[in-house]
Design a protein that fits this description.
Strand order of the largest sheet: 20-26-22-23-24
Mean pLDDT: 83
Low-confidence stretches: 1-20
Largest sheet: 5 strands, antiparallel
Strand content: 25-35%
Number of domains: 5
Structural class: mainly beta
Radius of gyration: 49 Å
Number of strands: 27
Amino acid sequence: MKTLLISLILTVGVSASAQIDECCINPDWINPNAMCTMEFNPVVGCNGVEYSNPCVAQVSGVTSWTNAATGLTNTLDWNCETGGVLCTSLSGIEIFEYGFWANPNDPCDMGECAPNGEFYGIAIDCASWFGAPCNGEWVNVDGECCPVCIEVEPLCTSYSGIDIFESGEWTNPNDPCDFGFCGDDGFFSGVIIDCPEQMGMPCDGEWVLEDGACCSTCVENTYSDCGSISITLNNGWNMIGFACSENTNAMIAFAAIQDKIIIAKDGVGNAYLPDWDFNGIGELERGYGYLIKVSEEIIDYNICD
């Protein structure tokens, strides 16, 4: 008996599902806040859905249901006329059937016509509308909602292997040294750049690559020419700065006045004593200062000469 009952329920469910029409659901009867008893007296609605009892079926908008236990059908008359408009699409087209609907003249116009009379349209976002890249052109294809990218063969290929699809001047946006001309005949004439830094050109300073530039530029050192300055050494102690282009041995640097030098000292106390032929300083270093004591005034003295 239990097996027979289950078979009956399934049969009734399939039969009811097959008979769904636009008069099956009355949108005005749908009331999710209605109070129904907890009685378990299952019925299968004309929409093929099983409800726990007839009250639950009715407040769901169902106008006809079949008792799962007895097989008896109960129909509520609500003066429904078949063939009426059930929904209206977002584009204003009238729809006469429930379920998924697509505009035969516009594949982008589609959605779901619900039993409550509402139409739920599907929003379509086409790649071409948002500027998606296409190595070719966007083409409208019959039956397709969105344009389809039809790729084309590149017209030229740069020396670095990048495909080029238009004739004329071309520059690699990621490499300013990679540019040239793409001809209508498909021939790419690239420009070969010989940068001074790569060719080993001398730079008395630093090579600097600026944004957007192909080759580095030599930014030369701007040393002030202090080596050409002459000073007067007073009799006694003097402070002198060494600004010559290269470090120089103290004996060579002071050779022109060594007969007048009593002593010369660096910042840490190392001394140069010409009378004793002693050079504790070693080399005079560029940018450092030295104390020097002379026996008489020396005019227009240039330590770099």
